[in-house]
Design brief:
The chain has 218 residues and is of the alpha/beta class. The protein has a single domain, classed as Ribonuclease Z/Hydroxyacylglutathione hydrolase-like (Metallo-beta-lactamase, Chain A, 4-Layer Sandwich). The chain has five helices and 15 strands. The strands form three sheets. Strands 1-2-3-4-5-6-7 form a seven-stranded mixed β-sheet, covered by helices on one side. The chain has a six-stranded mixed β-sheet with strand order 8-9-10-11-14-15. The protein has a two-stranded antiparallel sheet with strand order 12-13. A hairpin with a 5-residue loop joins strand 14 and strand 15. The longest helix has 16 residues. The protein is globular and about 50 Å long. The termini are far apart. The mean pLDDT is 98.
């Protein structure tokens, strides 16, 4: 089956099979949050991006092979509802952006800064600190050596625009600056984007609309 990135709460997961990494996407909770389970194909080590909700579904997706790490993309409550239960069940180490960790009610084992490397087995991910949706939001970039990059953007980039900045012009200016300089300016059009809610997209699909986003201010 070809990966589409279209999932629904209560429906099946969708799996993106890359040469070195398997990415399983599942939708959970009343706000239709996406959670992403990354599995190194060489070592079977696993990392979860956003234990958003519905620990039962997430633990079923993780399965019996354990979980090494959980990364919370930002402090908003819909992205960590299942974090305590998932960590209690798996013993996974927790990661979050340095400036959002204080807003997450589960202790953060690893404070993440811009440019930090996170690992799942033999696969490396690069953290990008994107300011505006929250003070400490992070995106994770996987630069696939066998293909194009993949970026997990939390609530900082979606199909059709950047994340919610609550009509705050300074927050919007900060977020679109960071998304442009740290994502669009350094990654190619083929880059696959995995957002915190809803369907996936690519940078190439979104890039032509950047001037519109600037003009509307959200």
């Amino acid at each position: 089956m070809t990966y589409s990135g279209r999932v629904t709460v209560g429906g099946p997961a969708d799996v993106h099979e890359l040469k070195d990494l398997m990415i399983t996407k599942v939708a959970v909770g009343p706000m239709n949050n996406n959670a992403y389970l990354l599995r190194c194909r060489a070592t079977d080590e696993q990392l979860l991006i956003d234990a958003a909700d519905d620990a039962h579904t997430l633990l079923g997706t993780i399965g019996d092979d354990g979980l090494a790490s959980v990364v919370t993309t930002h402090r908003h409550g819909d992205h960590w509802q299942a974090l305590a239960e998932v960590v209690a069940a798996t013993g996974a180490r927790t990661h979050a952006g340095r400036y959002d960790a204080e807003g997450i009610p589960v202790p953060t084992d690893v404070l993440v800064d811009d440019g930090d490397t996170l690992r799942v087995g033999r696969v490396e991910l690069t953290a990008r600190h994107l300011v505006g949706h929250t003070p400490g939001s992070i995106a994770l970039v996987y630069d696939d050596p066998h293909g194009h990059p993949h970026v997990f953007t939390g609530d900082c980039l979606f199909p059709g625009g950047v994340g919610n900045t609550r009509k705050d012009p300074e927050a919007f200016a900060s977020l679109i600056h960071d998304v442009e300089t740290k994502i669009f300016d350094v990654l190619p059009d083929e880059t696959w984007v995995y957002p915190g809610h809803g369907n996936d997209t690519t940078l190439g699909a979104e890039r032509p609309h950047l001037p519109e986003w600037h003009a509307r201010g959200w």
